[in-house]
Amino acid sequence: MDVDEILAELLPQVPENVFTRWLGDRVSIIWLEEDDSRLGMTRFEEGNVELVRRRRLSLDPGPITIGLHPRLLDEPVLLRHTLTHELIHASGVLNHSKELHDAVDEIAPGVSISDSPMLQEKREEYLDSAKVKTWSCKHCGYEWKRSTVRKPIRCHKCARPL
């Protein structure tokens, strides 16, 4: 299944927002560079000031470009999830809100990191560049190597909150 077919399948499922009715005519897909760190991006070509005005007045948003990482072609589930995420941004949900994440999960649930070589690589790249390399507990002094992006809630040894 190619990206245009996936786009045509996803468009009718995008929740109604300020720009939803124009998506079919205004969205174009491009491929990001291979070394780009993003899985996807949405760009309103008219610029931020004009975008705010058009949102407020519920006007046509103008051309919208969605960029996708070319390696997503190797992972169809992640491609659908990322494209859905970007389409919901294009519909007018600009922030990474609960509304956005709930809509994406309903239309195209995400893939587990353990099932995605690309997400595993992205996690490793992040951890390699992160300043914090270990987590340590102030209560018991236990220290362990960082293996997750998010900070753990509790100590692995004494189970007290960090």
Structure explained in plain terms:
The chain is α+β, with helices and mostly antiparallel strands and 162 residues long. The protein has a domain at 3-112: Zincin-like, CATH 3.30.2010. Helix content is 37%, strand content 13%. It has six helices and five strands; from the N terminus they run ααββαβαααββ. It has helices at 3-10, 23-26, 48-57, 76-90, 98-107, 117-129, and strands at 27-31, 40-44, 64-68, 134-136, 143-145. It is elongated.
Strand coverage percent: 5-15%
Low-confidence spans: none
CATH topology-level fold name of the domain at 3-112 = Zincin-like
Helical segment tally?
Answer: 6
Helix content, binned percent: 25-40%
Second rung of CATH, namely the architecture of the domain at 3-112: 2-Layer Sandwich
Q: What composes the largest sheet? A: 3 strands, mixed
**Average residue pLDDT:** 94
**Structural class by sheet pairing and helices:** alpha+beta
Largest beta sheet: what is the strand line-up?
Answer: 1-3-2
The multimeric state of the shown protein is: single chain
Distance between the termini: 46 Å
